[in-house]
Amino acid sequence: MAAKTTAPAETGGYKTLEPRAHPAREHSVAAGKAARQLAPLASHRDFSPAPSRDPVGLLLHQAESRVPELVPVRHGRMLVSPFAYYRGAALPMAADLAGTRSSGLWVQLCGDAHLLNFGAFASPERRLVFDLNDFDETLPGPFEWDVKRLVASMTVAGRENGLTAGKRRKVAFAAAAAYRTAMREFAATSILDVWYARFDVEDALARLKSDLPKKAVRQTQAQMAKARTRDSTQALAKLTTVEDGRRRIISDPPLIVPLEELAGHLDVDAVYWFLRRLFTGYARTLPAYRRRLAERFALTGVARKVVGVGSVGTETWILLMEPGDGTEPLLLQAKQAQRSVLAGYAGQSEYRNQGERVVAGQQLMQAVGDIFLGWQSATPPGRRSADFYFRQLRDWKYSAEIEGMNAAAMTGYGRMCGWTLARAHARTGDRIAIAAYLGGSDKFDQAVADFAETYADQTERDHAALANAVASGRVQAQTGI
Q1: Are 312 and 275 in the same domain?
Q2: CA-CA distance, 190 to 401, in Å (whole number)?
Q3: Domain range holding 25?
């Protein structure tokens, strides 16, 4: 997908990043500086709620395409705190960002780049890497939308952790500054080096070990060791059991419910047929050498899983896959992909299949990816056709424990996220134009930090509005799950 510095072109009803020859460096620099006329750096602090703004209405509209009995669980999880609300409110924020001034500098967006959608996982070479790890909302759009989503999440989480206003600002500023300085560094290097770049946790610790407090080094090493235990073996031990020589998925309703326990709602045989057909089609989307690996496994068990906050209510299945040679089974996740929350504001995806949209966006933005990542569409029994993407359920996956983080830890984590997001954007957008737009001063960093504080205020009001809607009966919520 080629770089783009203006809004996308219309192509058969879809908006894409228009393919064209890469502009010369001086043209990119000029385009970046010219973009300041569209959106001055200081304008990124601005946010004024639209008079017709109705975030609860947007959430209810979004719920119409989800599994009805799981929608109250989603709303209940969002009620827990303003930060929990923020995690589930990517759609209302997309609507808000669409009302702000845009740089017009387009990249492949994550679409939901809050701080918990970054984390560590295993590369195919079995190295622990840090990267973005959620792409359900990925779509091309203005680069600053992701930056604002990330930095505001740092401020909302900082409030929850009891940080003072001054400390919150330092955290938010550090994340925005890390993005800007990293983008300027990527602009000065070759595009091949950008695509080779990745955050290898072990290499980073080795480089920084002498500069870090011993306690921080020990904590990082402990987290790395913990991440390595979160693999398929651990997932199998936690989520499955063997009875009468047959492995099955353990029931933990309503979070994990084996298909057989859903028999009152579903035709079990029909769902197994559907999922086997879905898996066969998915395998065809893999490269030939990975398809050969996937086809060595057969589907022997299925359970419905409730995931995250924003994704609750989408069809998500755990697939227990047994190899023909009797060795270790594999757990895959088949997750429904719906229309991106950005589509109403940045344009429709060039991909008709939403699962393919997610996979393509992930492959564009991540430095390394899951070898089982693929997509397919099919029609679940009794429902309309749906798009899905597949990945391993767990492969050294580890997310930071944000709750209780002090200012120093949040600052360091924010810098990691800012660098990572810049690297992802530099792969798909005109990094030289974006770097020229951002410039060498801290004007952008200060503006986004201001925006983050203002949007944290709005998030608290929106969280209260959701609670009021539940109290009035407008919204159904099931708490404690």
Answers
A1: yes
A2: 35
A3: 9-227+406-472
